[in-house]
Design goal:
- 6 copies of one chain form a homohexamer.
- By secondary structure, chain A is an alpha/beta fold.
- Chain A has a single domain (12-177), classed as Rossmann fold, CATH 3.40.50.620.
- The first copy, chain A, is built from 7 helices and 7 strands; from the N terminus they run E-E-E-H-E-H-E-H-E-H-E-H-H-H.
- Chain A has helices spanning 24-36, 59-72, 94-101, 113-121, 139-148, 158-166, 169-176, and strands spanning 2-3, 9-10, 12-17, 39-44, 80-84, 107-109, 125-127.
- Chain A starts with a strand and ends in a 10-residue tail after the last helix.
- Chains in contact: A-B, A-C, A-D, A-E, B-D, B-E, B-F, C-D, C-E, C-F, D-F, E-F.
- Chain A binds chain B through residues 2-5, 47, 50, 58-61, 63-64, 67-68, 71, 76-78, 81-84, 86, 99-104, 158-159, 162, 166, and chain B through 2-5, 47, 50, 58-61, 63-64, 67-68, 71, 76-78, 81-84, 86, 99-104, 158-159, 162, 166.
């Protein structure tokens, strides 16, 4: 729990994702959590990764997408924090490291088994998130469609689709997979 | 430069500090920069450091102080990002690492010679910040006063003073310097 | 060779394992080596790993299991050391790093090709360990049985089975693999 | 708390030192703690450091000294663990990392302010150690005497003095400070 | 661009490879680039890796092979630099790190999509290399032949083949894959 | 010793320096060693450091200075290697790491006590270098003169002085120490 000067108790939740990219499923999850809590910490996990097949976007690009998407639907930016957190090699210290990077919180929202386990082993409360239109709202599916040229823009918020196109990130995903060159010769 | 959907050009600035703790000088600097730019990225530098004499606060505590202070004076949280960034051992890659953690920006505000040098060597624009009532608004001075029991709360925003007291951080600074025990025997 | 104060020459061996978990095959190997040497250094390798599918146990839990198992069969704790050693990214410096973590030794016992190669390239003596009832005494087999609910406790020393159950480690292995939640959505 | 199969509650303490080198003050502290607890975990801190002025000994050499000293006075090696633990750059995760390297324990014995603070912030019990003949029993004093050729062997257990001489560690301390060569020219 | 005292403009190219091992395809590529540029920086990438299946050779062994091969065909050693560069975990800072390790250069020669992308994102010029007798001149093929005992020496320069044999590296590749021992039991 | 294809025994020496910057004393040392050996490996130590007061130059800039200086006096580039090697946190593995980065060698030339100690502990041969006009030929002296505007160019080879001026490195040393700004306020 944290205190503001007028001493009203507020509840802060924490939500961890890699957001490669941020999509409509993430948006629904955040909307759901913001109904249950006063404030939300959105952790951009594996923040050190980018420019690889499963993690094409930098942390900064992921922060940008989240802000754009939440602005789109009018969520007050005073209700959330967006914090990039790098991975640690030692799994058992991940939650301790995470806590040092973010404001205090009372509850973690996650469906990921290892995250849930580490949070519980540290004596913290963890809650799951209802599943929405699961099949489509997966980052893997979106990256795969960008690569193959299929339509993907309806799977992410409008401003995120716009950002992915204009920032050159869509092109990056295609460039990274290029097989025009004999990359295995040298 | 970045684009919102209605395609108006906005200028984003970047300001780096360690904020150990956040004080009135930081607040004046941010107010100054927000008059020159549309949005501001506030980088919480040396984010991996805490619990040491010159760096007592965790990144999460520093993020909390900044949000509280900017809320205090009614700055719209939609105009800024607060992003913790760890140090890197290789100075020459620091700016490249920094860029991967934050949204795009056009100009860096800093008075620190090494920061200015690294930004300029990367071909980016850097601007200095006018000095305000310098002597008092220094983090070193505030940490020293907390330790010696002198009055320090007027040097930081009201909500920050409140946070430092209630969160136990003031006590931590005192505990860390304790000489009640023979710490050099074992 | 090392000298005790009464200046008798003793031979110390070194045995490296990950012990995920410690099982009857490890116990037979240690018994074998202790017949050939005066003292034994038991290195708990990959000490930084835990909470992952192939490495569920922390270094501390592995140290605990080894001590319990050797106590069970009455091996004098004065005859061995148990030392956790983290991996290094540079394979060619692993043996040098290992040597800095442990007391002096004369011979390494290992059947693992890379370990044997690195030891030999450093000019040290390496010896292999006879194979005991191989098929059953494999850590992979034990972790797989814990997960599927098959009987596994007869493959490890009695006190180790007891520890794995009571410490919650068996439950951790199950929790980590949980597919009750849509871990791939977020 | 931990359980052995016959379910007697035992208390395990933890004692952290750098042991550069292990001296009579350490020995008195360990004797004191072993009167208060059933078992003791002796953590060899900053295990990655060696070959520097304040940290001349490797972790392995420090483990060796501790075992020799405790053997000297007949402490049953079944009552303690000696575990090297490397430093972490992030202070706030140090205690979490430490816990992953060692068996479970109930209480930490330390007079060092930062150690005490980090243990308490994690919700663990910490106790101080009475001071013995303080002035002499300091590692700094011993290293300084080795360097200047003064008598130092009465400040450490007999077998430790013997080890420091015969292993070449005393000579290393002298060699490392050699000013026969113009080390600042190249 | 760089200047020598007589102020003639020279063009320096940069070529990145892992050279596990250096083969005739690498040699042809270097010959090709040296026709287009005045000087060449040969970066030995992933310099920290060795003693693993896909990366058996140390950086030092790879530097040795390159020098031997270029000497063989009489390329003036004044026209090139051989610089080992370790990988970084953060892809987006790799090019920045690389630049700090090597002399200035104007153009990068690479067919590898990620290398090409990172170079272009940094605003540098990248050029591709024509493919030579592709199928045979692949490091994977050579390592596989060494392991299986097939003829491989005609795929690498004569002095490189000689080095791989006499230095014991061929034997290392075989030793590392040894399955004479039950490496999965312990 | 290493063999060239015509099987003549050659002696290779190794010389470690930080070269911040490369000066006439380094040049005399290299000339001295090249009279005693057939080939020389010049290790650019602490290669990861740059942009700090005692280490202003990047590894790449130091490699460039060395090549320029040796070209100046007509030393055949076929007789030496210039290899940047990063520091490691574990002193006791430094020499092992070093060996993995460079071609084989028989003897290390160094006057630095720790380097000499680590080389000797690894069982290698180490030799000292005669002192030349010591007082002037120190990197500290040169950096200090660049900063204060005193004459320094006669302390380094002519082409090195030229490079330091034209590359902007002299200006960097001055910029890094700038006190025009209140760098301690923010």
């Amino acid at each position: 729990m944290f205190f503001q000067s007028f001493e009203v108790l507020l509840i802060r939740g924490l939500f961890v994702g890699r957001f490669q990219p941020f999509h409509n499923g993430h948006l629904e999850a955040i909307n759901y959590i913001l109904k249950k809590t006063d404030e939300l910490i959105i952790v951009v996990g594996s923040s050190q990764l980018s420019h690889e097949k499963s993690n094409p976007f930098t942390a900064g690009e992921r922060v940008t997408m989240i802000r754009l998407a939440l602005n789109d639907i009018g969520i007050d930016s005073g209700r959330y924090f967006i914090i990039p957190v790098p991975d640690v090699t030692v799994h058992s210290t991940w939650f301790s490291e995470l806590r040092s990077y973010v404001p205090d919180f009372e509850i973690v929202y996650s469906n990921e088994p290892l995250t849930r386990l580490l949070v519980k082993e540290a004596g913290f409360k963890v809650s799951s998130i209802p599943l929405f239109t699961r099949k489509l709202f997966k980052a893997t599916e979106i990256r795969s469609r960008i690569l193959s040229g299929e339509n993907w823009s309806n799977l992410v918020p409008r401003s995120v689709a716009n950002f992915i196109e204009k920032s050159g990130c869509a092109q990056r995903i295609i460039d990274m997979s290029s097989r025009d060159f004999a990359d295995d010769q040298y």
